[in-house]
Amino acid sequence: MEKTSFLKRRWSDFRNGHGIYLAFLLGFSNFILISYKFFVSELFPMHLWQFVVLFIAVYIPGAIFLGHWHRKTQLPIEERLAWDYSPTHAKYQLLGWDNHLLMLTILDYLLAKEHDAESKKLRLEIREMTARISSEREYFRQILEKVRE
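Given the sequence above, the corresponding structure tokens read:
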């Protein structure tokens, strides 16, 4: 593996430190100051330090609550949508369904030789699964076509 130069590592550290931490803190401080200047100082007789303490006491627990709610309710939905529209997932899903359809077709063929009630019931279930898999397979094929356009 190629040894990364000292300057490249420092540049990466700088971008992470700025983008993740410092820009967030500067933006958050800016948000507090602008809120105080244009909203609070005009309506309420309050010093900046009092507003900052009150704001942080209300805002941080509220943000934590919303972040927790987002992680528990919305994030799984977003991840599922991202997964469903992933071209890589669609490609592998199609390959997997092709294998499932082949196995179900072989199983249906083998059960066709049997004439008892259980075999007929299994063949009916196999045909229902085959129809469902075929429709889902077509859905992912359309996604792949859209991505390739």
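The radius of gyration is 29 Å. Try to locate this feature in the token string yourself.
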